[in-house]
């Protein structure tokens, strides 16, 4: 990040140059010298900015699907949003999460390797409390999960992986499957400590309870499909997504679609009293003369102008003019 000088620092620098305390030539030499940046091999950059943007787009959809899913399951207000997508060593991720948390370890075939969905205890216990008939509040003290609570957690999060499957469909068809549920991060070692991971952080609010849900995806797991996370691949795949013959099939279905066609002689307005007094032989004047032609509507849109007639003793309409724009006719009220 470029350092920005304050106005006081600029004034002090100009005063030093004018008084001779600093030499402008020496400053230029320092500027032209090569700058050395330290590189931390433990924080190797494996994901480009393009990859991070793609992961952000995918998991913004994942957050929307999760919001819908948990709202239906918990029957309360749920809001989930992507806060950050970053890359860091796996060991740093383990040290950043609570010692007692809910870790959903899962696989996603055809990808090889394991991933983790970490749910903060506040969020997990609020879900559990809501599912068991409570108000959805987090307990003041976090205890170990009982067998019944563990089973309930496994069921709700196993189905939550369907949202992840749906979000990744634009890149690859995966089949996430829950492998284990842990509460102690020290017992979970899915990759080596120095392995780079993509960490997707989701801010979660359930009722009045807030917390984080973190999705940990090791680089080694999605390395085979990294080229698919580029913007270029997304544009190419969208162009090729239409299967051969799909357009012809679509045209056939459109051609078989049924629409209502109505030929209007005209319109008229009468009062209820006049309507009740109508009898055989009465004449109702319309707002359109016969010379103007019939308005032929397809659905609610005016499409043709025609003339009335008969064919084989049946009423018929002859199309005289095509209204290409299909303007929607305004009804007089």
Automatic annotation (TrEMBL):
Enumerate the InterPro entries for this protein.
CheC-like_sf (IPR028976), Flag_FliM (IPR001689), FliN-like_C (IPR001543), SpoA-like_sf (IPR036429)
Fetch the Pfam families from UniProt.
FliM, FliMN_C
The way it spans or sits in the membrane comes to: Peripheral membrane protein
Localisation per UniProt entry:
Bacterial flagellum basal body; Cell membrane
Where does the Flagellar motor switch protein FliN-like C-terminal domain start and stop, copy by copy? 252-323
Q: Which GO terms describe its biological process?
A: bacterial-type flagellum-dependent swarming motility; positive chemotaxis
> Can you name this protein?
Flagellar motor switch protein FliM
Q: Which species is the source of this protein?
A: Paenibacillus roseus
